[in-house]
User: Fold GntR family transcriptional regulator from Pseudomonas oryzicola.
Amino acid sequence: MAQKFKLSNVLASEQLLPHQARGVIEERLRSAILDGRLPPGTAVRQQELATLFGVSRMPVREALRQLEAQSLLKVEMHKGAVVAPLIGEDAVDTYALRVLLETEALRQSIPLLDASDIASAREYIQQLENETRHAEIGRLNRLLHMSLYNKAPNKKLLRLIEDELNQEERFLRFHLSSMGLGKLTQDDHNALVDAACAKQVEEAISVLEKHLNTAAGVIRKYLDTQLGR
Assistant:
């Protein structure tokens, strides 16, 4: 079924200027993958995209490489680029990696956070308190975490973290409604922002570790149930 999927069913045809092509194509595909319009396993063909946007294959190829680097696409033998799977069997390993990456980013970022960063984080928490749409919860969660890490000087570290958060956002969009968690509490997020505001680096890291390890346990339990373990 994935091989018969037409990208034109999801992406509107549009004539792009050459200097815009790579960025626009990357963003259109990224949005369609994150919100589920392009499901895992969908083949993303260079020529189909080039025709759809009226450009050569070169900017399309560059856009696909960027999305592959963000773990949103993967290259499969005989199929080329396909939409990457959601968090799966390696979910616990994914969260273990996130603990390492995000605690380091938080350590680097907290001393440089200013009042506007803290205000942004608190605003995301307020929106999460009132949000019921699962797709939006995933997006707000990603933005909240990145608002606390964004001042870390190591930009490659931030890119790696955002890749992992993108994967979690996709997972939450598709699975949050069936996980049976009820209304999600913001206690950990509030404690994390409070510690960051007070420049209490070790306390913030402790809260973050607890928060991510709890999430890993919930997802592991859910996936075990889905696999009938």
About this structure: The two ends are 28 Å apart (CA to CA).
